[in-house]
Amino acid sequence: MTTMLKDELKAIVGADNVSDDPQVLAGYSSDISFVPSCRPIIAVYPRLAEDIRAIVKLAIKESVPITPRSSAVSFYGAGIPSEPGILMDLRRMNRILEIDPKDRKVKVEPGVTWATVQDALEKHGMMVASPLLPHRDKSVLTSTMEREPMLIVKSEYNENFMTGEVVTGHGEFFWMGTALSKGMVGRANPEAFILGTKIFRGQQGTLGIVSWANIKAEFLPVMDKLYFIPSAKVEDVALPIYRTQRLMLGGELFVLNNHNLASILSQLGLGAFAELKAALPAFTTVIVFSGQKRMPEKRIAYEEEAMMGLAEELGFKPTQSVAGINGSDSALLKLLRKPWPEEKYWKFFPKPHFCDIFFHAPLNRAPEFHGAIARVAVKHGYPVDEIGVYLQPVERARVAYQCFTFHYDPANLVEKEMVRELFLDASRVVVDMGGLFTNPYGPWADMVFSRAAGYVRVLRSVKRAFDPHNILNPGKLCF
Question: Is the pTM of the predicted complex or chain greater than 0.85?
Fold first, then answer.
């Protein structure tokens, strides 16, 4: 069957875009996560939307599952097959199809990376609001589909996937939002956000394969000012953020503990990791005030004045350098609207591997989750002060994305197993406490869906509608 399947795939995309090389397939079988490995039987590299459609139709005919992926990197297991089948690597579909400053959008194919899109948009004085220092080889579509939180906390940036084209499990095209109405193409803002796009986000390719997407873009500010708000403990973090967001102050806003911030600053050449970590406050809130072309100085001055009033009232002390580290504000500002510039990703430090536990919960509950995860870490023998913590307010701090990072050396099998057990134990604790895993990868899927019988029934009904042959990434989520 493999030889016949290979010949049929070659007929669709050409011999250079099909591989059954064992070494290539092994590279797709796992990532740094604890999701079980599974090797595909063949890899295919479509270049056109029609290629995707033809491959899906072939998979239906041969009853072969397809696992799509659009990034060169994978951290959480979404691109690992659950069953052997076709691995559809979309990285060769890497064109920026349109940059539209008027309607503030960029139309991209699935293989367009953060490095590519931000460099292209910068020439137009624009950017895509990004997550925290994404990997340069991660696709913009992957981040969008995985619902990664944006650094800009304005509500309108929580949904940056405007519309797009998807190939469903029927082997047919489906257009999301107003892209469905072809007569609207060319009119002002023809593909504005419509709720229909939400159904495909976070579904790990189980309902359809996106061939292009319109992503919201924004003009780059002409002036910025970055402030650090130090906190001695996590309990002090929430109130300043709630109050600044009640006044709708700032653009980028996030919180890092000393472990994460020291990792970033040390790799930017601002000092040695251990010394930086010892000098930094336990938690640091980063807030950026920005101004566009019209009176940027006055805009920033107004926001600064409002923040300083809150600081005097609440007793916090904003500064333009953290722990007296010269250049810390300018170094971070250069990075916040770009992917991580180096080949070695910032999270692969101080140890070569990491695993994340990330979920959504109210920001004022961060101390509860921090304490609970610290207790689990102690139970498993993991040093609490080596846990990386990242808190990202979402929609003006209506809720917060909370991420806990555990570093380990994969060559140390005892340490790796300890972190795996810690990861599973802490994940169960988070679910029991009401933390919401919006991307239930691997073992999280069972933890989440075993508690949501009604939701599972609805999801399975949707799955049958979009993928009646169950060939799109079967085994993921609750399918």
Answer: yes
